[in-house]
Specification:
The structure holds two protein chains of two kinds. Chain A is of the alpha/beta class. Chain A has four domains: 223 residues, Pyruvate-ferredoxin Oxidoreductase, domain 3 (3-Layer(aba) Sandwich), CATH 3.40.920; 179 residues, Thiamin diphosphate (ThDP)-binding fold, Pyr/PP domains (Rossmann fold); 71 residues, no CATH class; 123 residues, Rossmann fold, CATH 3.40.50. Chain A is built from 20 helices and 22 strands. In chain A, the strands form five sheets. Chain A has a seven-stranded mixed β-sheet, sandwiched between helices. Chain A has a six-stranded mixed β-sheet with strand order 3-4-2-5-6-7, sandwiched between helices. By secondary structure, chain B is α/β, with parallel strands linked by helices. Chain B has a single domain, classed as Rossmann fold. Chain B contains 13 helices and twelve strands. Chain B has a nine-stranded mixed β-sheet, sandwiched between helices. In chain B, strands 5-6 form a two-stranded antiparallel sheet. The N and C termini of chain B lie far apart (57 Å). The chains are: A alpha/beta, B alpha/beta. At the A-B interface, helix 1, helix 2, helix 7, strand 9 and helix 9 of A face strand 1, strand 2, helix 4, helix 6 and helix 13 of B. Chain A: One of its GO terms (molecular function) is oxidoreductase activity, acting on the aldehyde or oxo group of donors. Chain A: This is 2-oxoglutarate ferredoxin oxidoreductase subunit alpha. Chain A: It holds the Pfam family POR. Chain A: Keywords: Oxidoreductase.
């Protein structure tokens, strides 16, 4: 695969930091990692700036993780605390698996969006702040006053404040600096973090590849101007050394990884309905799916999306439907049909805050129970969760295989944090075994039945339309081995048993992931999904402090692999870490009799009769390692108190 | 719907299918005198006359009396959930143009719980035939008013009479963008029911056939006035529409020559209250079909998937210095 032509600059750029010329490397302060935030009004391009910075750093070999800072409205008021839009980028010398803690450096396009980040507690005490200073001399006296007030507060609070003339500088290059400041800032940040100028230019050309040449040129000019300005005017110089890249990697967000996973899984039909934060996966897929002869169908609603996918799967083309919480609720009857009629189906739920419309743009792990038990009746289905960007890609391939092997519904849970977070991972090497076999159109043996359940596995070989002798009427009603409607108690039980057996058969093939840390100790943290990176980072910090803490991360939530109980029993205390609600035991109304636990804790408690505690937050934010460390310390202290 | 090339080839090698080849081993469990039986018979006759291979024929339904039809056909059947027959059928068709897809649905299934899908199915205009068994009542759940129940009709949920004017499925369908085939039949004129289904099957696109159907249990006298008085039936004929047999023509003398491309007249006929129009109200074979528009230029192959994946990976690739495909910025 050798890209050619100028438009491929970004793909082909490979430069190590040692080769980087003229960036004052010698005087740079060397850091292990830094967290950078760029915030602006919506529409000023701070998100693009952050994503580009992350991509440049990743291509330099740095570990990165990005998180979007998203206002809930499309056009929030200008210069408002609620309207802060942007990106957080964690750049490190090592691999990064999560958002990290507070920001070390913030670039703010106005003082109100800065205030939003300060109030949210997202900025480290004493952090560096680069603030657009155009508001200091703004014609409106109220705005001048508001700016002065925040500026003075920030200074008084001990932050390292730089007032930066973004507007004035950008006016030298573009008539409307609102549409160009972001690239100027990107240039500044490349100077501050000693990132290679040519790599940055290549990234900007790539970002604007679909635009006309003069727009590309203008943005490259702004980038270079920002760099030059920062080199002359700022005394900030950092270097975050990156180890040389040793294997090909790709950098993308979780939704892009899901979309590519769908392509790689051999599924040919994706039926969806727009819903935040899942839709961008379908956007990405829409751009490429037709190139491989496949189709993204935007259905009239979530129910239609689910049942359309079921129809395609029934006809032999295993299909996926991509959604988020409210959509999952709407699909539940369709999912039940697929369970009852044993039609393979992959459902991807990019979780957001709930219930109801909840927090559409924000993260929560609130759908685990809904994914497992959301429909009516006994409806066994597979539920798995992706724990990293790379896992988003491979989970889809695994899900399609399980769905078609067992004729089951497989739900993949990701969330808003994974959806927009970027992370590099080893470039997947295509394997034709990922794909689905051609649709079986051979004649069905005369004596075969559409539900010839195998006693050992519960699996029946389904008949696909077009197969001679296979004619039968599939139904969502209780049915016998011939797919005839049957209300007979024995026949109903036979169906229930075999649908359940499939889950047990799959369970026997699962292997538990290794414990992170020692195999025994004082405290075991158990997690699932996107929190893996934060939990493991917290465990590393705790272990460095001398605590005997380990963690276990579950990929399959239904069924769960054997051996979890044995691991739990080797630890004094067990606590799940989840990004969802649980009742705080400190609340005066909450007692052991009425406390509602986090989802996974509830499941572990009921299955293994072990006193599993839980810690979690449902604030719409990814969990941070430092917060997990605190929770674990408190749990350890509590355990010590119990012993004494 | 169009017969595909492969079906033509199949017909050349296959011994002729007979009616019994389309009858399943399950005897219909509809009430005596139910109009659904006439529709099932017409369907089986159509399959026989068109020599549709049973394995290439799929009948999709939702929930209700009408939706039991797939169980009684020897074909592939999909008896799914209430209101969702159409999206299931669309999913079946999107990558399987070789399958003949029929949707059998009732007035509750299609016009109430599944109404959103009905409107959008018209707009998608995919190659399939929809049979709306409209008996103006919920039968399987034992007599509740449906959206097409006449105003004032007493039922278990409307003991003092249905409150609202009924919804007219014909005018609604004719009003949706991309409508391409709208016809009305009645269960008590089987010749015309069959002929209309046949023309629906041969239409390329989404063929909407409303079939007024008698429910002997819950709407016993609903259509008596029309059954007893053939002059209240308006039969639509045209060189491009129905051509009546002499024996039908002798009984049903109230005939109108109607060009199926005449939308204003189609709407006027659809809105008739005293008379029941029977025939093809509207047909436009030039409306594009979603399944063909989305067919894709090439089939999916492993080579293609690998190529596209690598193209995408290249766009976001990071290479070790020594193996980079090319240096940047030259």
């Amino acid at each position: 695969m050798t890209p050619t032509g100028k438009q491929h600059h970004a793909e082909t750029a490979t430069l190590s930091r040692e080769e980087t010329p003229g960036t004052g490397q010698s005087s740079a302060e060397v850091l292990q990692e830094h967290i950078v935030e760029i915030v602006s009004d919506s529409g000023e391009g701070a998100q693009r700036c952050g994503q580009s910075l992350a991509a440049i750093a990743a291509r330099s070999g740095n570990g990165i993780w990005t998180v979007e800072i998203i206002p809930a409205e499309i056009q929030p008021p200008h210069r408002s605390v609620a309207g802060a839009s942007g990106n957080r980028v964690r750049i490190a010398s090592h691999r990064v698996t999560n958002v990290g803690d507070e920001a070390d450096l913030v670039v703010a396009f106005n003082e109100q969006v800065l205030l939003s980040r300060l109030r949210a507690g997202e900025v480290k005490p004493g952090a560096t702040i680069l603030l657009e200073n155009m508001w200091a001399a703004y014609p409106d006296p109220d705005i001048r006053a508001a700016y002065a007030k925040v500026r003075d507060e920030v200074k008084a609070a001990g932050y390292r404040l730089y007032e930066v003339p973004l507007e004035v500088e950008c006016q030298k290059y573009v008539p409307d600096p609102r549409r160009g400041k972001n690239m100027f800032v990107l240039g500044m940040l490349c100077a501050i973090y000693s990132l290679d100028p040519e790599l940055a230019r290549a990234q900007v050309r790539f970002t604007f590849a679909k635009k006309e040449q003069k727009i590309v040129d203008a943005n490259v000019e702004l980038l270079d101007a920002g760099r030059a300005w920062a080199e002359q005017n700022l005394d900030l110089r950092y270097a975050i050394p990156a180890p040389p890249v040793t294997e090909p990697q790709v950098v993308m967000n979780g939704n892009a990884a899901l979309a590519l996973g769908v392509v790689a899984s051999g599924m040919e039909v994706c039926a969806m309905y727009p819903i935040t934060p899942a839709t961008s996966a379908s956007h990405y897929l829409s751009n490429i799916f037709e190139k491989v002869g496949c189709v993204v169908h935007q259905a009239e609603d979530e129910i239609a999306a689910c049942t359309f996918a079921i129809g395609a799967s029934y006809a032999g083309k295993c299909a996926v439907t991509i959604t988020s919480g409210p959509g999952l609720s709407l699909k539940q009857e369709g999912i039940g049909l697929a369970v009852m009629a044993e039609i393979p189906l992959v459902v991807i739920d990019v979780q957001r805050g709930g219930p109801s419309t909840g927090l559409p743009t924000k993260v929560e792990q609130g759908d685990l129970m809904a994914a497992m038990f959301g429909g009516h009746g006994d409806a066994p289905k597979v539920v798995m969760a992706a724990s990293s960007i790379e896992d988003c890609f491979y989970s889809v391939i695994t899900a399609r295989k399980i769905a078609e092997t067992f004729n089951m519904v497989v739900v993949i849970l990701t969330d808003a944090a994974l959806a927009t977070a970027q992370q590099p991972y080893p470039r997947p090497k295509f394997n034709a075994d990922w794909l689905a076999p051609p649709v079986n159109q051979s004649a069905v043996p005369e004596d075969a039945h559409p539900y010839d359940w195998d006693e050992r596995t519960g699996i029946a070989t389904r008949f696909i339309p077009g197969q001679p002798n296979g004619m039968h009427c599939l139904t969502g009603l209780a049915h016998d081995r011939d797919s005839h409607v049957a209300y007979d108690p024995e026949i109903n039980e036979e169906g229930l048993l075999n649908r359940s057996r499939k889950l047990a058969a799959l369970q026997t093939t699962l292997r538990l992931a290794p414990v992170f840390g020692d195999e025994e100790g004082d405290l075991l943290l158990i997690g699932w999904g996107s929190t893996r990176g934060a939990i493991e980072e917290a465990v590393s910090m705790l272990r460095a402090e001398g605590h005997k803490v380990s963690s276990l991360h579950l990929k399959f939530l239904q069924p769960m692999a054997s051996g979890i109980d044995a691991v739990m029993k080797r630890f004094g205390k067990v606590m799940t870490i989840e990004n969802n609600w649980n009742d705080p035991p400190s609340d005066p109304l909450i007692t052991p009799d009425n406390r509602r636990y986090s989802h996974l804790a509830q499941l572990l408690r009921s299955r293994w009769l072990i006193d599993v505690d839980c810690w979690g937050k449902a604030r719409g934010q990814p969990l941070k390692p430092a917060a997990i460390v605190q929770a674990a310390r408190a749990k350890l202290a509590q355990a010590q108190g119990e012993d004494q | 719907m169009n017969a595909s090339m492969s079906q033509c080839l199949m017909q050349m090698v296959h011994t002729d299918y007979v009616i019994a080849d389309y009858q399943s081993e399950i005897a219909p469990r509809w009430c005596t005198g139910c109009g659904d039986t006439a529709i099932l018979t017409a369907m089986q006759r159509l399959c026989r006359d068109e020599q549709l291979p049973p394995e290439k024929t799929v009948c999709v339904s939702g929930i209700g009396c009408a939706s039991r039809l797939p169980h009684y056909m020897n074909a592939y059947g999909f008896h799914g959930i209430h209101g969702r027959a159409l999206p299931v059928a669309e999913g079946i068709k999107i990558r399987r143009p070789d399958l003949n897809v029929f949707v059998t649905t009732g007035d509750g299934d299609c016009c109430s719980i599944g109404a959103a899908h009905w409107l959008h199915a018209i707009r998608y205009n995919m190659n399939m035939t929809l049979l709306l068994h409209d008996n103006n009542v919920y039968g399987l759940t034992k007599k509740q008013a449906s959206p097409t129940s006449p105003q004032g009709m007493k039922s278990n949920t409307t003991p003092f009479g249905a409150t609202l004017n009924p919804l007219n499925p014909l005018t609604v369908t004719l009003g949706v963008s991309n409508v391409s085939f709208v016809a009305q039949a009645v269960d008590w004129i089987p010749d015309l029911l069959y002929d209309i289904l046949r023309q629906a099957y041969h239409h390329k696109g989404f063929s909407f056939v409303r079939i007024l159907q008698r429910c002997p249990n819950f709407m016993e006298h609903r259509f008596d006035d029309w059954v007893r008085d053939p002059s209240k039936m308006r039969i639509l004929t045209h060189a491009n529409g129905l051509r009546l047999k002499p024996e039908v023509s002798r009984v049903y003398k109230n005939q109108e020559t109607h060009d199926p491309l005449d939308m204003p007249r189609a709407l006027a006929l659809a809105a008739l209250k005293e008379e029941i129009p029977v025939g093809i109200l509207y047909r436009d074979p030039t409306v594009p079909c979603y399944d063909e528009l989305r067919a894709g230029e090439r089939p999916s192959t492993p080579g293609l998937v690998e190529l596209v994946l690598n193209e995408e990976f290249d766009k976001v690739g990071i290479w070790p210095a020594e193996t980079a495909p090319a240096a940047a910025g030259e």
